[in-house]
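Pasting as-is:
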Amino acid sequence: MKVIIRTSLILLFSLVLFNCKAQKNGRFKPKVVYKSDDLVITQISKNSFEHISYLQTQDFGNVPCNGLIVSNSNEAIIFDTPTNDKSSEELIRWLRDTLHYKINAVIPTHFHDDCLGGLKAFQKYNIPSYAYFKTIAFARDHNFAIPQNSFNDSLILKVGNETIIAKFFGEGHTRDNVVGYFPGEHIMFGGCLIKELQANKGYLGDANVDAWSDTVEKVKQEFPDVKIVIPGHGEYGNKKLLDYTINLFKTRK
């Protein structure tokens, strides 16, 4: 009898260890948590969400545009607004009314519409906005909504018990493009500086093509532990997106 009990306990203990290890090693399965005609929100990790809104363009049609939401302890920070005020209102209401999050900040990663097109909605709700000083200057030059707070090189903000980083590494897609990083989950929002796999070079009207590869090389060196990389458009992935972007802009054609 004692042998049977001992064997049963050993089997039970082994199952517990196996389940714990499986949960620890198991990958988070992304899931869509909000969807409308104008906005899609996908949870991509325990505390992070990708938001996708749409921008009608003359050259590329109706373009899906990515942003990132990171959260901790019922607080959130958003990289890039949705493309317009309507979509931004949806995002704000979902975070505040459904998740009951306090939105600490929104950070446009450059001055184009796909980054700050919905900034007025955030200003309406008195949500602080932060941007690289050149982004603010370009927004002013184009008569866009202007972020409230500027930074010169990098920015660190608290979200709950964690932090986020926004940093300028050099020119590429624009002269003001910054990268966002959430160290707590090793997630990078590369914005339009980073391309999805198999993407072409896209819109280059405000780009510094010659500097682009070197800028992304600096990003790669700064965040060697990155696990998830979200580009400004298209599918997110891992650090292979950095290598793809570097190689894409080494080709001058």
